[in-house]
Amino acid sequence: MTTALNPAPTPKPPADDVYVLPAHLTAGMNDRGPRFSDDVWELRAVLPRTRMGTRLDFTGFVAGEDRQTAKEYLYSRLRHPSGRTGLPMKPTAAREELAMFARALRDLRALEAPRLRNVERHHLTAALALWKRESVHTAAAMVRLLQHVAAHGRFLTRDRLGLVPWEGRSANAVAGLSKPAENTTPRIPEDAMRALLNAALFYVETASHDIFAAQEELARLEEQRSRRGKAGDGEVRHRLEDLIEQRRSVGRGLPALPRALAHTKPEARIIDGVVQAPNLRMLTLLLRAGHIHHQLPRILEAGQELGWDEGGLGTPISPWPATGRPWRPEMSPATLASEIVSLRVACWIVIAYLSGMRDVEVRELGRDCAFTEPGADGRLRYKVRGRVFKGRRLSGDEAEWVVLDVVHRAIDVLLRINDDPTHLFGYTGGPNVGYVMLRAVPGRLAVFCAHLNELFGTAEEPYIPLVAVQPAMAADSLHDAGVACHGPETPVDGEATGTRLLPWAFNTRQFRRTLAWHIAHQPFGVVAGTRQYKHAAYAIFEGYAGTSASGFADEVAADQTVAKLDYVEDLFHDWNEGGRSVGGAAQRVEAEFDRIRAETGDLPGVVSSPTRLRAMLKHLTRTLHPGMLNDCFHQAETAVCNKRAKSLGRPLPMLSMCLQCPNSRRSAVHLPRLLHARDQARQDFPDLDALPRLQQIAITEHLSSLTRLIAEIHDEGDGPA
Hints:
Helix content is 46%, strand content 8%.
C-alpha cells in the first residue's frame, strides 16, 4: 500500500553558514566541522580514526535542486529522527546513506520519475523489482531509504516524495527478507582456523624476534654507510671483490631482487622463485657505498658465476616447527618491510580471535590498552582496555576484555613495530605522510593467507586447507553473509554432488563469530560469552553464537538431530555392554534402554537392526542436552535449575544443582572429564590456606563433589546421587 502525504507547509532551507553536525557531537573541539554551503562535508573530526570514507561529496549531484535536496536530506538525517521513534542517524552511516540516496535518484529517473515529487506507485513497484534482482538485502536497504526520505519530507524545500512508500510495512517485509534468529556469518572451518591461528601465533612468538633482529641489522648497516662517508670507486670495487669472494667461499649467490619488485626488471628470469637480477639496495648497504651503478657489469658477471640468493641480511632465521627448516629465506630491506606488514596482520588475528572484539574495537585500541590485575581467586588476569562502538554513542563506551597472556605479547610486538603516539595499530606511513592506521583488513588477511601458502605450503597442498563447499551455500548463503570464496576449485565428489574445494575467504566478522560458537559450547559458555561480547542479554549472544558450523537454521536442526542421535546410540551401547550410570535420570533412561533391548532382541555385543535401534532411540534426543560432566534428560517440571534460577530469567545449569537433579545422568563417557576437572582444580589451588575462608569452603566442597561423582561411576560410592 502506498499512501499520499498530506500537504505540509514549505519549510525554510538551512542557512548556508549553519554547521552540519549537531553541537553536542563537536562539544570541546576546536573545529565545529563543515557548514551547509560546503559541497564536500568532511566528518573526520567526529569519526574514529579507523573509519574509512569520512567525506560526503555532493559534487556528483547536479548543482541546483538535486544537490540542495541531497544536502537537506543528509542534514535532516543527522539532526532529526525518522518518524516518532528512533534516533538521528550517526555520522558513521552518512557516507553509505548518501551513496544509496544518489542511487535511488538514478534508478527512479531510469524508470521515468525525474524528480521525487513525480514518483508514483508503479514507479516504486518497478524499482523494487529492479533492486530484488540484485538481492533481497539490497532491496530492503533501498526500501528503507525511501521510507526515510518520506519521513524527512517536511525538511526538504526543493523536492520531496508525495506519497508514503509501502506504509505500515517494514522494509524487510516489502523486500521478502526474513531475518534469521541466528547470526548468519559463517563460522571459520576448524582446519582453516587452526592453520591460520597457528601461523599467527608463530609470527607473534617466534618470527617477531627474527624480524626485530633484521630491523636492528638493517639499521646498523644504514648507520655504517652514513658515517663512513663517500667511498671512492676503487674502495667500492675492493669491497665488492671481498664480498664476492666471501660469498664464493660459503657457496652463496649474490643478493637477488625481491620477487615483489620483479616487475621493475621484466626481462629477468625467475628460477625456483628467485629473480635472476641483483638487489642493488642491499648491495649498496653491504658495500657501504652511496651508489654502485658503475659496478653493475662486475655484479652481473659475479651473479652469472655464483647465482642469486634471496635476502642479504645475515640474521639467523628460526625453524618452522613442522619441518625444522628456516621459516623463510634471508631477508632484504624489501622483504623485511613486507614481513612487518604480515606481523601486524598476525597480531590483529591473535587479538581479534582470542578476545572476541570487533575489528573497529581492535584497531581503535590505545598504546596503553594492556593491563593485569588479580582475580577474585588470587590469580593474575590479563585484560585489554578499549571502547565498544556498536549500539553506543558516537565516541563509544569504555570496556574491558579478559584475554590470554599471548594477547599481551601481541600488543608488545605492536608497540615495537608501530610508533603512533595514541593508537596501537597506527604507524608512520612514509615521508611526508604522517601516521596511518592499519586498514582494509579483509584484503590484508587474503594477502597474509597467500603468503602463508607460499612459505609453508605447496601447489598441491596449500598451508591453509581448502574447504568443501556445496554449490547452494557458495552461491546463496555465503554471498548473503558477505563471504566470497574464490580461487582454484577442486572437485570433491564429482559432478553428482557438485561439491568443490575452495580457499576460504576470511573477513573480520568471522573471527568474532567463530570464537562465540566455541565459547557458547563450553560449560557456562552463554554466560561467559554474554559478558565477553558486551551483549545486553543472554538471548542476544545465543543468537550471535549460533549452534551449528555456519549458523544457518536448516543446518542447526540437522546437526543437532544427527549428533544427539549418535550420542544416544553410544550411551545405549555402553549400557548394553555393562557400563554403569548414575544420577537422578539413570533409572528412568536405563528402563527405556531395557525396553528397547527387549523389543529389538539385542544381546551384549550384538545389534540385530542398527536402523531400527536408531529409530527407537530417536525420541530420547528431544530432551537430551549432553554436558561435559553429566547429561541432562530435561523435564521442566522436575528440573532443579528451573526452580532455583528465577532471578536470571532463564535456566542456568550448575554442577551443584545437577548433583541432586532428577534429570541428570552420568556414565563412563564423563569419567575422563571428571578426572580432568578434579586434577585441574587440585593443580590450580595447591595451597588452600592462602585463600579466604569462604573460598576454601567452596573449593573443598567442589573437590569433594568431583571425587564422589568419580567414585559413583567406579561403583565405589553409596549409590546414585
